[in-house]
Amino acid sequence: MSSPEVTLASLPELLQNDAAVKVAGVDVDGVLRGKLMAKSKFLSIAEKGFGFCSVIFGWDMHDQTYFKELAISNAKNGYRDVIAVPDLTSFRRIPWENDVPFFLVSFHDPDTGSTLSVCPRSLLRRTVDKLKENGMGAMAGAEYEFYQFKAPDQESGGAERNSSATAAFLKQNPAHQLPALTEGMFGYSLTRPIQNQDYYYGVFDACAKFGCGIEGWHTESGPGVYEAALEFGEITAMADKAALFKLTVKSIGSKHGITPCFMAKPRAGLPGNSGHMHVSLVDSSGKNLLARETEDPNPPYPDLRHLSDLGRHFLAGLLDGLPDIMPILAPTINSYKRLVENFWAPVTVSWGLEHRAASIRLIAPPTASPKATRFEVRVPGADTNPHFVLAAILALGWRGVEKKLEIAVPPLGKGQDMGGEGDKGERLAKSLKEATARMARPGSVAREALGDQFVDHFAGTREHECRLWEEAVTDWEFSRYIETV
């Protein structure tokens, strides 16, 4: 479990009975990349870090180098090392790997020593530091929905059923033949999890031991779909927990012959997988700064009567910048197949008090207590990088505070749907290509809030994703055109 008490001096005693240590950092796609190292090696690099090949910022999620060379890692600089510095406060033991010690790392530029512009953990930390300079902090919560599929039996005889078996199956078979963990639509079922009881409770218990505890854990509507709400906490720790939650589910699933799927839209005609994020601001004592001390008798909109002026500026910043950070909230080609009308997914710049059809749901009195006042950003899918999502949300909101922006879009009324007559918000991008072009353009809000270096790199990675899609020949195309054209 995470412990802030770990220091360089206490490491030898902490690891006295261990032979090895596992370390990992987060790449652009939110994937944990790391290694196992001897304890003696770890102790020698715990303070100043060690060289880690920068190629993890020079290739995609399947280890294919980006078609366009990007600044961090490329052939010209020899895919040189960056410096990976262990975060001692991230200490955990991996319960499903015999309690091997585990630390997260952050990446630094070897020339300047400063944090790497595209390091997900560092981007969020830099954003949080801006609030800290003003005596504030941020809290967050994450919710993930995901499908689960049964890993098919290997035909090689006796091979273990795991995620590799699923990958091998999909090389030879269409995706629709992959069996779901359970059949039918049965959200909040008390009986469906019993069909896979060891896995269901195994995930819950492993998350608690691994410092990414689950607050709520249930089936969601869809064949083999679960939803987890992670325990609310400080925003940088929350992002780590979200990344580690995915690692936990995939690891435990693989041991049970189950392949969890965090794609935004795994099945046509069925609901997608969301990755909603909850965010609030606090002062140094932990007091919620979004709640208004006394109800505003004359608010710009009734929905805002319990939201502080700080909260209103933060909300205005979110609404103003939302279209420009869409590649972060919807980072894959598949993401945009979830963000369509009539599927409980937001498609416009919209908000409203307790409005689950809006992009931003304001949770505040009278339905919530003042200390629970927060924003739920409902655009992200489960396929997102949690560090980037939370950094972008916080950066946009804080920009609204600094500029004292005013809310330019009226709230959705109860019973009003996105895209309807009452929705005055801009339609969000309908494709990754459209979203990336908007984010990358000169003068975008994303550039102002997150920096040119980050946007140039991240936009380049999304352009790579778009190019691979444009060059792909799909089963749909082949079936449709093989005979008739």
Automatic annotation (TrEMBL):
Molecular function (GO) terms for this protein are:
ATP binding; glutamine synthetase activity
Q: Which Pfam families match?
A: Gln-synt_C
InterPro entries from the UniProt entry: Gln_synt_N_sf, Gln_synth/guanido_kin_cat_dom, Gln_synth_cat_dom
Carries keyword Isomerase? no
Q: What biological-process GO terms show up in the record?
A: biogenic amine metabolic process; glutamine biosynthetic process
Q: Which domain of life is it from?
A: Eukaryota
Which ranges does the record mark as transmembrane? Answer: none
Chain coiled-coil ranges: none
Keyword terms: ATP-binding, Ligase, Nucleotide-binding
The GS catalytic domain covers 120-485
Question: Into which family does the record put it?
Answer: Belongs to the glutamine synthetase family.
Its name, as the record gives it, is Glutamine synthetase
The species this protein was found in = Aplosporella prunicola CBS 121167
Per the UniProt record, the lineage of the source organism begins with: Eukaryota, Fungi, Dikarya, Ascomycota, Pezizomycotina
